TrEMBL record:
Name of the protein this chain belongs to: BTB domain-containing protein
Taxonomic placement: Eukaryota, Fungi, Dikarya, Basidiomycota, Agaricomycotina
Lineage top rank: taxon: Eukaryota
Length: 259
């Protein structure tokens, strides 16, 4: 009688190996992880294989798939550590929670997962980075990698914090978005001034401006936020953690502004 056979759950690897090159560094990895996690690579590897005699990119060290010049070996390695944790951790496939990355490595993961639609790893990167970024970093990275709630949080924090916007921060706010860059800091300072007048007792409002910050930010940056959100939709709109939303409701009426 023939014995029934089955494939091992962990150590029966499907797909083939592919060689990719970032800068001067070659990487040879199984295609299964790339195909499983990214629609971009799934589509790439589903293309028909050329007739025999044609050298296919990625099948050998002599003709690797060349990644864009902007992608460094270090950045690509950060993504591969999540895709193939067993290579460096000795754990089974899928144990991505065991991988520890630095802030800069998570930013690399966010960049590449956005570029290639690794949706699960993009979500992980946003989650890990959320508590590490400054308000300016949230605005700049949120603009670049289409994380709407980061941009909103960054604007809210810059309006509500004690310290004013520095010259260096104003310059950073001028880049990385399709909005009217030179006016970003000015618009935020106008909202801060509105709040400062209230707390100085000169505005004559019946409700604290803390209740109007979201509305003022939406009024000033609504078009930019809407454009970012539209581009973000195919990735799945990321939402602020509950703890962030609660912190955003803090009463800032005791803050003294520094100009």
């Amino acid at each position: 009688m023939t014995m029934a056979t089955r494939n091992d759950d962990q150590f029966y690897f499907t797909g083939r190996f592919v060689v990719l090159q970032a800068g001067s560094t070659r990487f040879r990895v199984p295609t299964d992880g790339l195909i499983r996690e990214s629609q971009f690579f799934s589509d790439m590897f589903s293309l028909p294989i050329p007739a025999s005699g044609t050298t296919v990119e990625g099948v050998s060290d002599d003709k690797p798939i060349m990644l864009p010049e902007s992608i460094s070996a270090e950045s690509f390695r950060s993504l591969l550590r999540l895709l193939y944790p067993s290579a460096s951790l000795g754990c089974s496939s899928g144990e991505d929670h065991a991988v520890e990355l630095s802030e800069s490595e998570w930013i690399s993961v966010l960049e590449l997962s956005t570029m290639w639609y690794f949706l699960r790893y993009r979500k992980m990167a946003i989650s890990h980075l959320n508590g590490l970024l400054t308000p300016i970093e949230k605005v700049c990275l949120g603009r670049e990698y289409k994380v709407t709630f980061w941009v909103e949080q960054g604007y809210h924090s810059l309006v509500k914090r004690k310290e004013t916007i520095s010259n260096d921060e104003a310059l950073e706010l001028m880049t990385g978005s399709e909005s009217d860059h030179p006016l970003t800091a000015l618009a935020l300072l106008r909202i801060r001034e509105k709040r400062a007048k209230y707390f100085a007792g000169r505005a004559g409002w019946s409700t604290p401006p803390g209740n109007t910050v979201e509305r003022d930010v939406e009024r000033a940056f609504g078009e930019e936020l809407s454009n970012i959100r539209k581009i973000e939709e195919p990735y799945g709109i990321a939402e602020a953690p509950t703890s962030d939303r609660a912190r955003d409701e803090i009463d800032y009426s005791t803050y003294c502004y520094r100009y």
